[in-house]
Amino acid sequence: MKQAAPGRPKDLEKRAAILQAGKRLFPRQGFDGTSMDAIAAEAGVSKLTVYSHFTDKETLFKSVIEAKCEEQLPPELFLADLQGPIRGQLLTIARAFFALITAEESIALHRMMTSQAQPTKLAQLFWEAGPKKLQAAFEAFLQAEVDGGQLEIPEVWRATSQFFCLLKGELHARMMCGCSEPFCETATEDHINATVDMFLRAYSPCRGAA
């Protein structure tokens, strides 16, 4: 039996360590303030190893955003289960998304992207690696639910945007401004349930049914 090439698991471990280092350093120090030397030191690898996995800092940054999003909202979360209740599926996605956007590191990255000092290229990398991919996955999920008769949505792309904007709500805006008060788990759950129920009232085949 052919054995796996030696060193391959170690390479995967090093790549994971580099991504974890990026997740810690980019939100804390910003893009410009994070060097590849710092990433290498944080990951416990050589700078050459960092470059062998990620050709430049922009590629590493994009990969960090993708990894963080997939960690919180894995692709299987968006697989439509037409046999199960649509409300349960939406709640699962909503909870994962809300946890992602309100995490301390996510708020820090979002502030960095909205800073006027940041170059357009970096903001575009962030958008394509994070929000754009998540919206595409959710749009495909909604389309599958529409095709299966669970939802009735004339413009799926618009409903996708509405869902995520509703979930962000006032709390995310306050967190971005740095003026939010501590919020309890019950308040968060109430907000998520209210958002999902409003979405279903708008797009259920029988209006008002959840």
TrEMBL record:
Signal peptide coordinates: none
TM segment ranges: none
UniProt keyword Transferase, yes or no: no
DNA-binding region boundaries: 35-54
A Gene Ontology molecular function term of the record: DNA-binding transcription factor activity
Tagged with keyword Nuclease: no
Keywords from the UniProt entry: DNA-binding, Transcription, Transcription regulation
Domain named HTH tetR-type: residues: 12-72
Superkingdom: Bacteria
Pfam families: TetR_C_7, TetR_N
PANTHER family: HTH-TYPE TRANSCRIPTIONAL DUAL REGULATOR CECR (PTHR30055:SF146), HTH-TYPE TRANSCRIPTIONAL REGULATOR RUTR (PTHR30055)
Protein name: TetR family transcriptional regulator
Source organism per UniProt: Tahibacter aquaticus
